[in-house]
Write a structure and sequence with these properties.
The complex is a heterodimer. Chain A is of the alpha+beta class. Chain A folds into two domains: about 130 residues; about 110 residues, no CATH class. In chain A, helix 4 runs antiparallel to helix 5. Chain A is globular, with a radius of gyration of 22 Å. The relative contact order of chain A is 0.12. By secondary structure, chain B is mainly α. Classes of the chains: A alpha+beta, B mainly alpha. At the A-B interface, helix 1 of A face helix 1, helix 2 and helix 3 of B.
């Protein structure tokens, strides 16, 4: 049997770095399960810069794809976080921005193409502004369905997000296969129906995972299987009400796109007067070294 | 992302990964035993920049003083 390499060669390695910044999480540690986080008394989490080992993790395609790279780097740079798979999506952007800021500084270079004319523009984002925006993140837990029924929801975790992304990737791959002209129509239909079924299943599972308590006639229900059964069998109005509530919170908490104004020269070439550039956390872009 | 775009991204990541490793090996070599490769792997970019500056200064000193470095 091949021995596993030691995690670190020097037991003092964790003392080699100093915290670069301290952040407050939008959740203040709520929604993190026990043992997954060590919450400081002042709620200020120290953030360390990435090591060369962390940077290499972000250059490993499989680890990026399955989410392990993000989990390992978060746990390395924010040691109070013990299990980043359980990180609520409410806190995720704040943590990633803070790690980027601690490692490469406040300014993040960024490239985008002007719509219609494809001119490449170099831009710089001040990460302190993004971090400030994150402090406005909020979560409203209770959805009052009627006088007798209230649904309590929590943010999804990074584990859910990764699972969903992998399933979406797989589904997209299947949809691309369906577009193959050489496939017989019956087979295309079969593949399409199967994929559509899977997508519907993902939506229901995610909604079910978001609900952690239902209060019906003053009785609290927290049993996972009962909640799941309720979500699977509830009428579409209640389902839509829960879905809309979560969607509204997601839109509020998502990073706001960059509003850009075109120059008169660009407009003359066919660019729109103004346009939005989404700020995404594509790992390879976001963590690419800025100098 | 199409499969072709993913392949381009994977190739870029491999190149970037190789560049980081090369930087670490170079630093370890120029530090002449002053720091091990394992220790370099747990240093952040700021510390690696400081080491690079230190090496640059030492190279300049060697050049100016005429003492052997290699």
């Amino acid at each position: 049997m091949v021995p596993r390499p030691a995690k670190t060669t020097n037991p003092l390695s964790q003392w080699m770095r100093q915290p670069k910044i301290y952040i407050r999480l939008p959740s203040n540690g709520r929604y993190w399960p026990d043992q997954s986080i060590d919450i400081p008394n002042n709620l200020e989490f120290p953030v360390y810069s990435m090591t060369a080992r962390d940077e290499l993790l972000f250059k490993t395609p499989d680890a990026l794809m399955n989410g392990q790279a993000i989990v390992d780097v978060i746990q390395s740079c924010v040691p109070n976080i013990k299990n980043a798979w359980e990180c609520p999506t409410l806190d995720l952007d704040t943590i990633l921005i803070a790690i980027r800021l601690a490692t490469y500084g406040e300014i993040m270079p960024f490239k985008f193409k002007v719509p219609n004319i494809q001119e490449e523009i170099d831009y710089e984002i001040d990460l302190r502004t993004l971090l400030d925006q994150q402090s406005n993140n909020l979560w409203e837990e209770v959805i009052i369905i009627n006088d007798e029924l209230a649904v309590h929801v929590k943010p999804l975790t990074y584990r859910h997000l990764t699972k969903t992304n992998l399933k979406s990737f797989e589904t997209n791959r299947i949809f691309n296969m369906v577009n193959d002209e050489n496939l017989p129509e019956e087979q295309k239909l079969e593949i399409f129906n199967d994929s559509f079924g899977k997508l519907t299943r993902i939506t229901i599972d995610l909604l079910s995972d978001s609900v952690f308590k239902i209060v019906a006639d003053s009785q609290e229900v927290t049993d996972k299987s009962h909640i799941s059964e309720f979500i699977n069998n509830t009428d579409k109005e209640i389902f839509a009400q829960i879905q809309d509530h979560i969607k509204r919170l997601k839109e509020h908490n998502d990073l706001k796109p960059l509003r850009v104004e075109s120059t008169p020269e660009q407009i003359a070439l066919g660019a729109p007067e103004t346009y939005n550039i989404p700020i995404t956390f594509n790992n390879s872009d976001f963590f690419a070294q800025g100098f | 992302m199409t499969m072709a775009e993913i392949q381009v991204e994977v190739n870029n990541l491999e190149k970037e990964s190789k560049a980081i490793k090369k930087e670490l090996y170079k630093l370890a070599w120029f530090m002449r035993g002053g720091i091990s490769l394992a220790e370099l792997y747990v240093l952040d970019t700021n510390d690696r920049e400081i080491l690079s500056e230190l090496i640059q200064e030492n190279l300049e000193t060697t050049k100016n003083s005429g003492l052997p470095f290699f």
